[in-house]
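Support request, priority: normal
Reporter: lab tech (M.K.)
Component: structure prediction queue

Hi team, I submitted a job for Extracellular solute-binding protein from Paenibacillus planticolens yesterday, and the status page still shows it as pending. I've pasted the exact input below so you can check whether something in the sequence is tripping the parser. The sequence length should be 521 residues. Please let me know if I need to resubmit or if it's stuck on your end.
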Amino acid sequence: MLAAGCVSEPQGEKPSAPDKSQAQSVASYPLKAGSTLTSWQTLNNNLSSVNIQNLVDTSFGKALEKQTGVKVTYTHPPTGQIAEKFNLMVASNELPDVVEYTWTSYPGGPEKAIKDKVILPLNDIIDHYAPNLKKTIEADPELSRQLKTDSGQYYVFPMLRGAPSQLVFQGPVIRKDWLDELGLPVPTTIDEWYVTLKAFKEKKNAAAPFTARYAGGRWDVADAFIGAFKTSNDFYLDDQGKVHYGPYDSQFKDALTLLRKWYQEGLIDKDFAIPDAEGKILDNKITSGISGATVGLLGGGIGRWLDTMKQKDPKYEVVGAPYPVLNKGEKAFIGQRDFKYNPGGSAAISASSKNVETAARWLDYAYSEEGKMLFNYGIEGESYKMENGVPKFTDLILKNEKFNVQQILSQYTKQSGPYLTDKNRNTNTYKQQDNAAQVWSDTEAAKHSLPKFISPTPEESAQLAKIATDLSSYKEEMFVKFIMGKESLDNFEKYQKQLNAIGVEKVISIYQGAYDRYIKR
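Reply from support: The job had stalled in the queue. We restarted it manually and it finished. Here are the results:
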């Protein structure tokens, strides 16, 4: 970093807005001795699993303090109570300097959070105190659009992904060792999946050939199978950029008809709607032979299951399968795919902060070359080393005898949060994971996914708040009933009318307007 000095505001003195005529200063790290901040952010579950309760106690937290010179007091809301604790904190009017949160979910959106004086607009702050983030934004006009409100206000230090391959991490997973034993290919079409699941049931005695986790009030199949019918399990965009709600589409009935048939024939887990927030039920079924296929993650799915079974059953193998289509050779209509900017885990500076410059410079460190190495790889010589100019994780990370890869990584790096993921970072430990990411990427999700960072107006957000929960709850209730046969599919039009009565057309209209404004930013 070029050193041009760092002039921090006196401790406890709330600064005025940066002077627009003032030249941007580049910070020299570590910052001024005695610099302190408070930060509210979730704690990675992998840390809790190894009995670490605060980020300050990790190797990453200690290194960040040493390198930035900022002593941070962290507050971590309990898992499962994040929204509740956030709302209580906002209501109390006692916010820390920095808050990591999904600010797009704030009632009324980020614009309302600024108007409510909960967080600060960051345009001038980035201009003067965050040269690394500013450089990143200026190099990518599409990213700049993603990070703004409709009025042009930047509001967070964002979580960013540095390579297209990092945007896809979930999709269909299947027992490859079973396929090989049965002489079957990895299925690509709905018909091939039917043949495969029947074989799993009849020849492998799988009690639940296909299963998936049920959590957060919904069955976590993403758009697997459903997308084959040119629709989605959520809101999406058609080829003309028009917003639709998949479960309201007439073709959604075709997807339900398929899933109902498979359920009747015992190809879908009869207990699929049992809540499984931590995924332990799914883990047991996919590693014990109860199930042969699911929808899973790269690390917390394929990687974990291969780790679990490599000693118990060396022949065990799971691989990623393509998102199914109706006809051979078609490209999947939609699948899981994130955008470069991930609203979750992004950080805002609270309007009550008395340490604005320190907070901005501390957050900006993550986008510097030195900061990116710490956030992505940890400590050189311990968690990574350089090989031909490329950082590589050491055996401490990849072959740790005490912790799995995700557990040890969470101690040395920031698994999610406001920083730029390095394009070379790869925490996969199996070729099956790399292959799955490629297979799952072969969809039209980039065209059909509705961005998470569109901004309804405060008035529209108030309307959404009245409708969204009822809409989602009714949809999921009927989704389960249709599949299980507790509700006849003859009543699908009646179900559509009820969605309309709840307000689905209004929600579609609001999202359409928000998306149109986003395109014009």
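Residues 253 and 265 are 18 Å apart (CA to CA). The longest helix spans residues 458-484. Let us know if anything else looks off. Ticket resolved.
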